[in-house]
From TrEMBL:
Database matches in Gene3D superfamilies: 1.10.8.60, P-loop containing nucleotide triphosphate hydrolases (3.40.50.300), Peptidase M41 (1.20.58.760)
GO molecular function: ATP binding; ATP hydrolysis activity; ATP-dependent peptidase activity; metalloendopeptidase activity
Keywords: ATP-binding, Nucleotide-binding
Family under the similarity heading: Belongs to the AAA ATPase family.
SMART domains: AAA (SM00382)
Keyword ATP-binding included in the entry's annotation: yes
GO cellular component, one term: plasma membrane
A biological process from GO: protein catabolic process
Protein name as annotated: AAA family ATPase
Keyword ATP-binding: yes
Length: 651
């Protein structure tokens, strides 16, 4: 017997279900495109409350049309089950005579091995992306959905969108209703103004300290109605290596300004779940800080949000773009965000999307460097609650070179612990020495090699870039177990001019190779100090030479192929022409360094021995020592070249 089945009027489409349908269609396409293939798909849904929306979407995918056998029994089925842990027989009974089935379940239960055997596909339902919402609106004949509205919808639970759009309301009204619902959800309790140090009592923050004190005045004037919010800085990006105290600065800034501090990070928001959950957490955070203005919004690890400028050719590009777009909207919404100052903290500002650093957003970049010697003494004194004894001052400066504020805080904790264990009241010089990590003292030969290396940099700097040297130094020891390569340093005022040309790059590469060449001239070979890290001399010159070829058109062609360091690295290894051009450039600069330093080898040797004794030289002191060495050598060898700038090499 056959039946003349009449189809019921189609269920009107809904935006949420249609977007979910498009997302599911992509995942099930291999089965859906082959109409005569039977299958059982087991689909997990992360949010169980959204499952009914996916079920509605799945029914439209496989139930449209005449899916009945000759006896009028349905041959397709969409269902849900919570019994995937037990025996599969209840599922098998449901699937009798069913050719195509989509079964939904929650993610919080494991799938029985027997169930695994009976299904053809096990997947996790994708959340609809902004593109799916745009396409769904177009499919339903709705007005075009804006990108920002689509991204907003993709961050919300599907059930909320399904309920808000069960009738064809205007989209702006739907967005408004959903926004109000979101803002009513309970938030974290308001944080009080942080306690602890203020900016006036912090040491080693330089420009950041001055900016913060100015912000305090501006916020006070804004609250008193003396200035408009447009006259207050909206945000700043703090840049510095780990441990310099970027978080401590944010706490001190909030304390100084007398406003609450709210901290968050990309990692915290990602921990909420998938992309939609992350964007929802982000919007909730900014809604909270807006309600509690004036306040400081501190976003740690700001570079973790990524930049849209670097394309990885991976699936996460769309994820990253949506995150950055949402962050832009939150940091600088169209309606403004009065009373909220956003502070970002980053170790790598090049990984921050440039749109986030434009005026009205994080419009200022402030470097927080590692503290100098005097600042380290003051920071340690702050953590100890007393000034450091004069007798230990010089030793602390020498022993903590390159230390961050976090490392100094740990030193203070360890010193106080030693003091308590001996029954003392105040930390003494002996306690501090006992808290210092054991150090390996460099031998005289090791100190001399380090000095030769740094003098090689400094001499080439003076020859090729007169007046640009700031100073040089060598370390005499380092903590046991410390694998840091830097055991000395040569500092210059300016690495590159505003608009460097090819010669500027060549000069910089030559100066960077000066340490290696000096070691080779004096000792017959160089040490491992020239390489081994991304900040090493060889890594820097390789990077600069590659940039000349691939970014700035200084090579054989004008094609700019690289948009990231990873791309440059890949092209350098994959393209023999690029690799060969980089080697030629580096070799030419190495030969130039040899030509300049070889006639001055005795001067280099003499200056290095003075540096071993003095450990540190300013640019002025370096020039004095060079002149003295020249005079001595000139008396022995009248044909030694004078230390004069090289013609045509001045920046």
């Amino acid at each position: 017997m056959s039946y003349d089945l009449r189809q019921l009027p189609p269920v009107p489409r809904n935006l949420a279900a249609t977007a979910a349908e498009l997302a599911l269609r992509r995942q099930l396409r291999p089965f859906l495109n082959r109409k005569h293939v039977s299958f059982v798909a087991l689909v997990s849904v992360e949010d169980a409350d959204d499952r009914f929306v996916y079920e509605e979407a799945a029914r439209r995918l496989i139930e449209e049309g005449h899916h009945y056998d000759e006896d009028g029994n349905a041959s397709v089925m969409v269902s849900a089950t919570n019994d995937i842990e037990g025996r599969p027989w209840s599922i098998i009974r449901k699937l009798k005579d069913i050719r195509r089935s989509i079964i939904f379940h929650s993610m919080d239960k494991p799938i029985n091995d027997d169930v695994q055997l009976m299904v053809d596909l096990v997947i996790e339902a994708d959340r609809p992306s902004p593109r799916h919402f745009v396409a769904a609106a177009r499919l339903m004949g709705l007005p075009a959905l804006s990108r920002s509205n689509a991204e907003f919808l993709s961050a919300l639970p599907l059930r909320k969108i399904r309920l808000a759009t069960y009738r064809r309301r205007p989209m702006e009204r739907v967005i408004g209703m959903l926004s109000k619902t979101l803002s009513k959800e309970p938030e974290n309790p308001v944080e009080l103004v942080p306690r602890g140090p203020t900016l006036e009592t912090l040491h080693g923050y330089g420009e950041a300290r001055e900016w913060g004190l100015q912000l305090r005045r501006d916020l006070a004037d804004w609250q008193d109605g003396k200035i408009a919010w447009a006259d207050v800085d909206r945000g700043v990006l703090l840049v510095g290596p780990p441990g310099v105290g970027k978080t401590m600065y944010a706490e001190a800034l909030a304390h100084t300004c007398g406003v609450p501090l709210f901290s968050a990070s990309s990692g915290q928001w990602q921990a909420e779940g998938h992309l939609g959950d992350m964007l929802k957490a982000m919007r909730k955070y900014f809604a909270m800080v807006s309600r509690n203005s004036p306040c400081i919004a501190f976003l740690d690890e700001f570079d973790s949000f990524g930049t849209r400028a670097i394309k990885s050719e991976r699936d996460n590009d769309d994820y990253k773009r949506q995150v950055v777009n949402a962050l832009l909207e939150c940091v600088d919404p169209s309606g403004g965000r009065e009373g909220v100052v956003v502070i970002g903290a980053s170790n790598n500002p090049s990984a921050v999307d440039q749109a986030l650093l434009r005026p009205g957003r994080l419009e200022r970049i402030i470097q927080i460097a590692l503290p100098n010697g005097e600042a380290r003494v003051a920071i340690l004194g702050h953590h100890l609650g007393a000034s450091v004894e004069p007798l230990s001052r010089d030793e602390i400066i020498a022993s903590t070179h390159g230390w961050s504020g976090a490392e100094l805080a740990k030193l203070a904790r360890d010193a106080r612990r030693i003091c308590r264990r001996r029954g003392g009241v105040a930390v003494t010089d002996a306690d501090l020495k006992g808290a210092m990590p054991p150090r390996r003292i460099f031998t005289e030969d090791e100190r001399f090699r380090i000095a030769v290396h740094e003098v090689g940099h400094a001499m080439l700097g003076q020859l090729l870039q007169p007046g640009n040297l700031e100073g040089l130094r060598i370390d005499t020891s380092r903590a046991v177990g410390d694998t840091a390569i830097e055991i000395g340093g040569t500092d210059f005022k300016l690495v590159f001019p505003l608009m460097p040309v090819e010669e500027d790059f060549q000069l910089r590469i030559t100066v960077l190779l000066g340490g290696m060449v000096a070691e080779q001239l004096v000792f017959g070979g160089h040490s491992t100090s020239v390489g081994g890290s991304a900040a090493s001399d060889l890594a820097q010159v390789t990077r600069l030479a590659t940039m000349m070829e691939l970014l700035y058109g200084f090579g054989d062609n004008l094609i700019a192929e690289a948009d990231s360091e990873a791309t440059m690295h890949r092209l350098r290894w994959a393209d023999r022409g690029v690799s060969r051009a980089v080697k030629v450039r580096l070799e030419a600069c190495r030969r130039r360094a040899i030509e300049l330093l070889e006639p001055r080898r005795e001067i280099l040797d003499s200056v290095a021995r003075v540096l071993v004794d003095e450990k540190e030289m300013s640019a002025e002191r370096f020039s004095e020592v060079v002149e003295e060495a020249e005079a001595t050598v000139r008396g022995l060898h009248e044909d030694v070249f004078n230390m004069q700038p090289i013609d045509g090499a001045v920046l």
